[in-house]
């Protein structure tokens, strides 16, 4: 049963850290990936896979660093899955790869809850159960045509130019507008949404920007909730959530705000990163474009394979009590980074793990996590990635990178290209 707690404005806005504090970027060179890794080091952000491999194939496949108040980094598939499933020890009370700003408790995206991925049992069970119908295959299928229309409209804007930024002009617009449709909020908020999401997930050293972005998200959805109370809407997820009951009582406003926060932050950056990575890959592999054009039956396995190889997300867990895990003495309060991209390239689980094999048959990847916190929105993400690539290949079957060296990347929490110029 959901707990009755203080008013959402008081609860959610009380966690603001003092203004004016910005973490200065004073990173020193990495001495050893095993004992001093830095997931925000520029070369690691651009291409983390060699680093993951070096750690994974060492005598100690779970690395440790003292940077950013310290963390552990498991890299083998078996270890990452075990951690994800041991939710009683490795809790979800802090899922960001960076520690919270000074004065703020551990929390989700900038101190605002994002159920169910930030929930632990027993609340996790009802948190997840209530939103699963929203993301069921038959529920998300109704967004396919709208997503295709959106992709075509985006392509219309640049197809005659012969060049485009496959990330900034294409991938990064798609999930923002899809999520806006689901939430029933206006498309003209796209620029603000994008800025807020990046402020929370892509600028984690800038604590002042994290604060502003978090505040903006809270205030926006508080206003949306108040509006729905006065003016309920049909086929509107926020209205539906407000009317949802558990054990005969409507769910707390904090849950509604948390789900909105989850959809905005977790549902946008992760998906546009996946789409952007797929576009980056296809720009360099004409043989894969040809395979997909000539074999419609290949699409289901191809999407799973691309998600495996280019899994965008690393999630954190907080150790609940002192424990030795695989010989590592983890202490209560330690942060553990579940690097799903590293697990998905473990040769113990996947043959030729760095190779994209579009018809790979055995593919139990963890791009969407594992265990009770596995991504509830995975069906929507799959749909968006597939429709984005299908629509592009229908309109622009042949394209290539303008300059591979000019591609820029975001990383740390979510890995994906932010600028990816192509010509066609």
Give an account of the 3D structure.
With 424 residues, this protein is mostly helical. Helix content is 44%, strand content 11%. β1 and β2 form a beta hairpin. α8 (144-156) crosses α18 (378-395), α10 (174-183) packs antiparallel against α14 (253-283) and α14 runs parallel beside α18.
Spatial strand order of the main sheet? 3-7-10
Counting DSSP E segments of at least 2 residues, the number of strands comes to 14
How confident is the prediction overall: mean pLDDT?
Answer: 90
Principal-axes shape call: globular
* Largest sheet properties: 3 strands, antiparallel
Number of helices: 18
Kindly state the percentage of residues in helix: 40-55%
Instruction: Please state the CA-atom Rg, rounded to the nearest Å.
Output: 21 Å
Amino- and carboxy-terminal Cα gap: 55 Å
Secondary-structure content class: mainly alpha
Low-confidence blocks of residues:
1-25
Q: Estimate what percentage of residues fall within beta strands.
A: 5-15%
